[in-house]
From TrEMBL:
Domain Antitoxin Xre/MbcA/ParS-like toxin-binding: 90-139
Domain Antitoxin Xre-like helix-turn-helix: 26-85
NCBIfam families named in the record: TAS_TIGR02293
Pfam family, one: Xre-like-HTH
Protein name in the entry: Antitoxin Xre/MbcA/ParS toxin-binding domain-containing protein
Length: 142
């Protein structure tokens, strides 16, 4: 379900250009490559800054090149949807985009003093953040 909500973080079917109502549809869209507009939507919505996109999804210079092409690669799309999934889970856990954003950007002792958003550049890092969000959501001491 979080993956479906992640679609909204990247702009939904309107931005992606395809119905994204199932995990299979999302997988197919990632494999095709998301439009660059998905990155633009994440930035415009305030969910990630350009600097965070640079660290987690793709370097600025590459983003500039991908803007000319119009689409991301499947790997870049996968990193974007991974970050979007964690952002969506944080928003659900904390009840608002603003509170989730603050938590994602605050160093957290449970993650070795790192900012949760900084760990989204790897699947293992994202899994650690998702585990912590699950503990918080269920009232288990983080």
């Amino acid at each position: 379900m979080t993956t479906i909500r992640a679609v909204d973080v990247v702009g939904g079917p309107e931005v992606i250009g395809a119905p994204l109502d199932s995990a299979r549809a999302i997988i197919a869209a990632v494999r095709r490559g998301f439009p660059v507009a998905a990155v633009e939507h994440v930035i415009a919505s305030g969910r990630m800054t350009l600097a965070e996109i640079d660290e987690v999804v793709l370097p600025r210079k590459t983003l500039s090149h991908r803007r000319k092409i119009g689409t991301l690669t499947s790997e870049q799309s996968d990193r974007l949807v991974r970050a979007a999934r964690v952002i969506a889970e944080a928003e659900e856990t904390f009840g608002s985009q603003e509170k989730a954003g603050r938590w994602l950007r605050r160093p957290t002792e449970a993650l070795g003093g790192e900012k949760p958003i900084a760990l989204l550049d790897t699947s293992e890092g994202a899994a650690e953040v998702e585990t912590l969000l699950g503990r918080i959501a269920h009232g288990i001491a983080a």
